[in-house]
Every structure is written in structure tokens, then in C-alpha cells.
Amino acid sequence: MPRNQEVIRQWKLLHVLESARHGVTLNTLSTELNVTTRTIRRDLAALQEAGFPLYDLRNDDGRALWHMKGQALSGLQTGFTLGELCALYLSRKLLETIAGSPFQRDLKNAFGRLQRELSPRMRNFLDRLPVVLATKPGPKDPGSHEGITEQLLEATLHFRCVAMKYNSVSSGRIRNYVIHPYRLVFAQGGLYLLAFVPAYNDIRTFAVSRIKGVSLAKETFIPSKEIQDDVFANSLGVNTGEAKQVKLEFSEHVAPYVQARVWHSSQEISDSSNGSLLMTMHVCHDWALRSWILGWGPYVKVLAPNKLGRIIQADLASTISLYSSSSS
User: Fold this and answer.
1) SS3 readout for 109-161
2) What is the pLDDT of residues 181-229, one digit of tens each?
3) Domain count for the chain
């Protein structure tokens, strides 16, 4: 069993219990989640041990009905420290920079409830804090994809097969896919779907903004492959390719700026005798890497591998030809 399947099932179990005002029987939970009552008992015991307020009561017929007591985090009646309150309130601004999030409405409602607990003078003070700590919103996908996102979440949680229409960049046309949705991931200002494509026997990445339609089938699937927690760990952008070594030399003019940030978790930096900076990373040799290198202009040189150096050289030559043709 994939290690995420149990967590997803228990998450669904909590939502069923939360929405059932009069309780739910084991048999109903078993049918709802399509597992045995033995599995449901094991999940309930695990969730109780984790601290969720779950309990069972017998009704007039003698059947045990399972309930969730109160609301999540109801024990926070003691309030927050000033530092905790400021950090939480400011996190609203950070979360608002996430474009296309399927949880934006819930976040807005949650922070609205928090705001109502503050006095007008306290709200006025906290609203001034973004003046000293601000965020820059990332690029946003055009249009709304809430309906598609909700269907994909439904399919992911319940392991439903999906027929999808996708505007493919490579072919330049709408393509039809049958997919097994594994995970939705927010990255680089957009929402992405990782799904297993039976026709390719592989997991592919799809931009939700390019999905033109989805239809959930009655058929379900069993996840056949694992996805690591940080799905784009090998890329400077949105890619799941193999990580390969790259060696770069940055001139002394930009060395302080390069050294001031962690561009990738695998980076290793050392000083050169001529004042330049040497960097080694293990990342995908994808367009995200190429555009990042090109963004440094004449202040960086690819030392290895030679193939990547030739590609960058070709990109630069193409750029020069664009300006040469426009000036002639």
C-alpha cells in the first residue's frame, strides 16, 4: 500500500465524521471509504491516539454511532501570545500571494474569524505591520480553475480515474488523456497535477491552467508508483527529471549576490583565486536551469557539462541573431 493512501483515507474519515451531526456507524464509514470495518476501527484508533476528539455512543437501537466532539483546535481558548498573534496575522499576507489555491475561500473564512476576535485598535495596529514586512505576489494563472481543481481533488482523494482534455505545449493542440491523479502541487506561482498516465506507464506533470476539461469515471485505481514529498526537488523550476551535476563560474561582479542566497539545496560554493565564484549543483538540465543561467548574462560561464555549455551558447547566439535581424 502506498504510504500516502492511509493518510488520505483517514483525512476523508475525519471529514465524514465532522459533517455527520448525528454520528455515523462503522458500516456506513466502511461503505463510504470502500474498506473493511476492521480497517475503519484501526483508523479510528490511530486518530484517537493522535489526539482527535472521536468517540462512540449507542443509539436507541443499540448501534454504535461515531462522532467528532466540537471543532478542531477548540482548546486554543487560552489565546495567543503577542508574538504568535502577530506571526499568524502576518501569515495571511504570505498566504494571499499563493495564486490558484483551492483553499483560498477557507483561508479567507479562517482569518475572518480570527479578525473578529480582535479589538478595532488591535486590528488597526496589526494592519500596519505589512508596512514593515511586505510580500510580492507571484505570477497568477489567468482565469479561474476552481471547478477543475475541485474535481481533481475529489479524484485524488478517492482514487478515481479521470478523462482529461489538455492543451499540450509540445503538440500545440488539445489532447485527450486517461489519467490516475496522484497529487496537486503549488509551485512557481501555479498549480500542477502529478498523474500516472497508463498509456505512457509513467507519471507526468500537467499545468492545471492548461487543463480544458475533466470527467471523473466510476472506475477507481490503485496507485502503482510512489511520489517523493518534494516532487520538484531536482529542479530550479517545475520538473521531475533526473538530477545531474552542473559546474558554473560567476564573475567577481556578481559573486556577493550569488553567495547571499541558496538557489538549490545541492549547491556547493567555493572561491576562485581570480576573485570569481565556483558553484556546483545537482539539478535537472531543464529550461528552468537554462533560463536561470541566461539571466546572469555575461557574468556566468558553464564549466561542465560541455553539452549544457553548448546549449547555452546556442541560446545566446539565437538571441544575438534576433537583434541583428531587427537592426538590418
Assistant:
1) HHHHHHHHCCCHHHHHHHHHHHHCCCCCCCCCCCCCCHHHHHHHHHHHHHCEE
2) 999 888 877 788 999 999 999 999 999 989 999 999 989 998 887 777 7
3) 4
